[in-house]
Structure formats: structure tokens, C-alpha cells
Amino acid sequence: MPWAVRPLRLGRDWVAAPDPATLRARWTALAAAKGTEQERLFRPARGRTPATGAAALPGQRSATAPFAAAPGPCPQPVRVLRAPFDEQWLLPDQRLIDAARPELWRVRDDRQLFLVEAPEPLVTAHLPVGRLGRLRPLHRRPGGAEPNLAPGLPALLGERYGGPVATEDVLCWILAASRPGPKGVPEVPLTADPERWRAGLELGRRLLAVQLRGARGGDAPRLPGGRRPYVRSAVTAWPDGLAYDPETETLPLGGGSISPVPAGVWEYETQGARVLEAWFAARTAHRAAGAEGLEALGPVEWPQAWTSELLSLVTTLALLADLAATRAAFEPGPTVSVGDLEAAGVLPPPRWARRPASVLDHREEGPGGQFALL
After folding, report:
1. CA dist 262 to 69, 209, 257, Å?
2. Which own/partner pairs from 349-355 qualify as long-range (CB within 8 Å, at least 24 positions apart)?
3. Residues near 361 by Cβ (< 8 Å), separated by ≥ 6?
4. In this predicted model, what pLDDT tens digit does every residue of 304-362 receive, in sequence order?
5. Are 125 and 93 in contact (CB under 8 A)?
6. How far apart are CA 328 and CA 25, in angstroms?
7. Is pLDDT at 263 greater than 80 in this prediction?
8. Is the pTM of this model over 0.85?
9. How far apart are CA 109 and CA 92, in angstroms?
10. Cβ-based neighbour number of residue 225 at 10 Å
11. Do 61 and 74 contact (CB within 8 A), yes or no?
12. CB burial readout 129-161, b (16+ within 10 A) else e
């Protein structure tokens, strides 16, 4: 997957939040402020200030004049991946974002997937934001028109495995077979054995379905039978913290509780942090002692939607924990060598494959209402 892009760099945390209502409240507060108070709330940086105009993001409707002069209506928040397994919301206004990566917005649609580099690669249907590894879009153009694969790779693999190889097949193989490499960049051995390829695809498809969590019209993953987590007692107050009772497999939550929660869910870590604890911390950040300005705006009461999200996250982590041993034990068998790929002209990929594709089939509004030429 030659084309790689850094995630969006916000420059100010208040532009993203776990719920869209908070973002609308922050927008209203910023638009109502004037002069030095607006600048303080905005948290200007070298690239973005209230006096900076910017083009509208591809596919989004927002004002392009400087925010201080004409904020315009609040844009509709969009779903993003803020941290591993943490889906939040973002104000899609380039005037507020230091590095919004317009090239990613141009290829964002209901067929796009993003592979996030990590010790264990993660796939999401939402734009990744913040301190994540480099990401690799599955497609280089909207509508899945061009795969982000080294030219010639699907044809070469199809010849070796005795059947067509789809773009998503390669993605599933990466999920199943990749291993940590130097400097945290995953390495992906390509098997020379058709049977190992099919076994890897089966495992990768299971991993992909779990990680997508029902995105793109698929069914949300479920645990079998009575192992599904439920709200055993309703959340009646704002949770003071997140704890775990291993004896009863219960998560106490604001006077309520969720169970069963397998121990592997509580212990599941990415980037050196427990996923559940990081998820909860993101939803209580506005209540922390040091929160100020727009970042201190957030829900007064615990939203019911967050409890539903937590149930979904528990299910996702439980399924991934169950698959962890299978993935760790998976072996690709004999591999296709780098020399084989070079001889077939697959490696090194051409320079154009490492850059975003030109998109000329639509118009984009630039700063001040002028149209941008792409």
C-alpha cells in the first residue's frame, strides 16, 4: 500500500469531542466571543488563528472567510477515529484545524477504509485524527475506483494462488499476517502457499468485521449467547471513575453496572494504555481539574449514548481478545521473496503510487469563496 498519509493534526483539542452536541456548544461559544476573548478560546497556532481563512474541506459545507470576520453556521460534525477503538466527532472546518489533510477528505466515502499503522494494524471506516501511526487508504480515488496497492501485485498474487485477489483481500491478509517491524512499522510477509493464503484471508476477514464494528452497512459484531454484555443496573449518576471486579466480571458505572465483561477486555491495551480506561478518560476530560476554555464544555449528565457505545466497545475488545491467540500463532509458511517482487516489477512501486491521485471531477471552494483548481 504505497500511499501513506499522516493522520489529521488538529492543533487544538476542542475541535473534537465524544459527542456532537458538545461541538455545537463550543462553536456557539467561540462565534459569540469577540476580540481577545475569541482568540483566547480559539488557541491560535502558527498555522491557524481566528484571522485565518481557509478552503472548505472536500465534501463539507463551511465558511471560508476568517472565523473572526464571518464564522458562518456550525458545520455538521463528522465521525472520526480519535484513538484506537475510540470513535468521536469532529468539526469539519479547515479554519480550525492545523493540518486537515484535504487529500484524505477527497477519497472519504462509504467504500473507503483506512489502515492505521501500529504494532498491530487497525482498520477504520472513519478518518483517523491525532496521535496515531501513519494511515494508508484502501483506495486512491472515490468510489473504490483505484486500489492503493503496488501496481501488479493483485495480478501476481492471483497467479500464485490460483484465483482473483481483491483489494480488500490484501487488507485482510495484512491484518492476519503482519508483525511488528523496525521503528514500529509493521512488516507483512506474503505467503507462497495458496492454502496459507486462504487461511490468512479467513482470519483477516474475521478481524476486519470486528474492527469495523458494523460500519459500511455490516452487522455489528456480537458475542455468542449469554456472554453478551448488558446493563445490569441503570447508570443514575456521573461515574466517579472506571473500575473492574474480576470475580463478577462487572464494570461499575455511575451507580449502575455492566456485565459480563471478560478479564481480557479490561486488560486489552494499545500503545501502552488500557483501551477502556483511555476511552473513559476522554469522556471525562472536560470535568478534569485543569480543563479550561472550550475544552471545559461538555455534558452535564452522562449521555445514554455513551453507555451504548461502551457496550459495543466491550464486545469488540472481547472478540479481539478471543482472536489474539489465533493471530499470534498464525504462520504464513514459505514466503514470496523481495527478489520475486522486484523481478515481477511490483517493487519498488512507482513514485506516482506514493502520492495522492489527482481528483478533477468536482469543484472545491477555496478561501474567500473562490473555487480551487485541483
Report:
1. 53, 20, 14
2. 349/2, 349/150, 349/151, 350/151, 353/2, 353/3, 353/148, 353/150, 353/151, 354/2, 354/3, 354/4, 355/3
3. none
4. 999 999 999 999 999 999 999 999 999 999 999 999 999 999 999 999 999 999 865 55
5. no
6. 45
7. yes
8. yes
9. 15
10. 6
11. no
12. bbebbebbbbbbbbebeebbbbeebbebbeebb
Dig out the grid coordinates for 30 from the structure.
467561540
Confidence label for 368 from pLDDT (cuts 50, 70 and 90): low
* Structure-model confidence comparison of residues 284 and 271, the more confident one: 284
Amino acid at 221: P
C-alpha cell at 6: 499522516
Q: Which three cell numbers stand for residue 91?
A: 468539526
Q: What are phi and psi of 352, to 5 degrees?
A: -65, -30
> Parallel, antiparallel, or unpaired: how do β-strands 127-128 and 78-83 relate?
parallel
Residue 367: pLDDT over 80: no
- pLDDT surpasses 70 at 371: no
Residue 3 near residue 136, CB atoms below 8 Å: yes
SS3 99: strand
Give φ, ψ of 219 to 5 degrees: -80, 140
Q: Is 139 helix (H, G, I), strand (E, B) or coil?
A: strand
Instruction: For residue range 180-222, list pLDDT tens digits in order.
Output: 887 777 899 999 999 999 999 999 999 999 999 988 777 788 8
Rounded Cα gap, residues 54 and 102, in angstroms:
11
CA distance 56 to 83: 25
Q: Name the nearest CA neighbour of 116 among 125, 103, 105, 107.
A: 125
CA distances from 342 to 44, 323, 333 (A): 48, 34, 20
Between helix 153-161 and helix 194-212 the angle, nearest 10°, is 120
